[in-house]
Structures are given as structure tokens and as C-alpha cells.
């Protein structure tokens, strides 16, 4: 497949501390959003428009537990196709992602990498000199493995066996950061990630993850079913959680 120069923007959603990534093809004017978030859908469309691009696809790296994707809203508003892991079998999907089967957006090639562990069907996305690691590999950390078919052993092999096998200077862009960090590299994470880097053994990692003692995610019971519908806001959302998923605005067409 052909490759082209990439327009790139990193966008941050503060409610769930989620990074959304805008990738655009200079030649075709087509764009894709990786892990778009419901409260920020208008901002994302404005960013696409400001760059003179047309949104043709959204990609969710996995079924999220901490926010609701805006994939369906963006499809409604911009006509973009929804790409999700084929393994999830979501009926709302337009493009089913398979491991090592490239996605093409204009002249941009995006290579999906199945990286289970945080969830069983989690994917990372390799695009040129950067990899979008979702929740599998974070900066100085990794995603949880204690819900949604999480598996510490699988995550260890996904990160150390697949992601750490990428070239040293590959830029690492995670789906979240809670400390204001924006980017890392494979070399840095391989050397010093406190959970998975250095000489960390699989048994040490499994023990570490089993003893994190993290609280139950406060939005998971709404986010997972909403994301299995590619971004459906629940009707019974408590007032304390409404900032995660505001009411969908009416969109008159005439």
C-alpha cells in the first residue's frame, strides 16, 4: 500500500484524561480520529475542518471503560466510518480491524496490532514512526488487567513481545496520561517503564498487577454497554456522571 505525508494533532479530553489523535493525509485531504470521546466531538470536527480535512474514519483501540466513544455521533454528523476490532463483533462497526491487515486513509497506512491484556481484544495502531498504544502501554505504566477479560500474562507478552519489538525511536502515544505527559518512545519505555521495562519478569509483573488495589472504575457500568453500541449515551446516567456523556444535541437537517 502507498504511504503519504501525515498531518498530526494530539487532542486532550480532561474529564477522562483521554488523548484523541487526528491523522490526516496531505494529498487526499482525508482524516481519521483515534479514540474520539463523546464530550469533545464538536471540538474534534472543528479541528478536522480547520486543517481543511474531511473525516472519513474513526478508530477505537478497544471497548473503553472510562469514557464513551463519539464514533456514532461523528458518523452521523460527518459520515465517517467506524473501525473497531473484528474480535469484538460489534454490529455497529463499518470496518472490522484484523491483526496485521492495514487500514488505508487516503495515502496513510495504519497497521493494527492485536495487543491483548488490558482487554482481550485490544489493538495498538502503528502509523509511520509512531504507535498509538491505547491502554496497553502508557508512559511509565500500563492499563489495568482486573476487568473486561483483562489478563496480566497476555499484556506482558503484548508489550514486551510486540510493542517493545518496534524500533527504538518509534514514538509512543498512549490513550491516557494523568500527569501531563504527551509522548514517549519505545526505547524509553523498554528501558525504564516501572511496570514492564528493564528486566521485569512475567511473574513479577503478574504479582504487581494483582496487588495494585485500584478502585472500581466509576463509569464502567455505563461506558462498556455504551461503547458496545459504538457510542450510545445511557438514559439513566446519574447527575454525578453526566459530564462524561452530555445529552446528544438535536441536529436539524433542514
TrEMBL record:
This is Metallo-hydrolase. It is an enzyme of class 3 (hydrolase). It comes from the Bacteria. PANTHER family: PERSULFIDE DIOXYGENASE ETHE1, PERSULFIDE DIOXYGENASE ETHE1, MITOCHONDRIAL. Its EC number is 3.-.-.-. One of its GO terms (molecular function) is hydrolase activity. Pfam families: Lactamase_B (PF00753). Keywords: Hydrolase, Metal-binding. Residues 17-176 form the Metallo-beta-lactamase domain. Gene3D superfamilies: Ribonuclease Z/Hydroxyacylglutathione hydrolase-like. InterPro entries: Metallo-B-lactamas (IPR001279), Mito_Persulfide_Diox (IPR051682), POD-like_MBL-fold (IPR044528), RibonucZ/Hydroxyglut_hydro (IPR036866).
